[in-house]
Amino acid sequence: MKFEQRSQRDYSTPRPQPIRPAELRSLVVLLLLLISSLAAYPARAMSQSQAGTIVAEKPPASLLSTPPRAWVVDTIALELNALHHKGSYLRYRMHIVDAKGDQLRDVIESRDGAVARLIMRDGKPLTDEQDKAERQRLNDMLANPSAFSKHVHSDDSGKKIADSLMRLMPDAMIYTYVPGQPQTGKNPGMTEVVIDYEPNPNFHPPTTTAEALTGLRGRAWIDSKSKQVVRMEGNIFKGINFGWGMLAHIYPGGTLTLEQAEAANSRWIFTHFTERLSVRALMVKTINVKTDVDATDFHTVSEMSYQDAIHTLLNTPLPGR
Question: Does residue 257 carry a pLDDT above 80?
Answer without folding.
Answer: yes
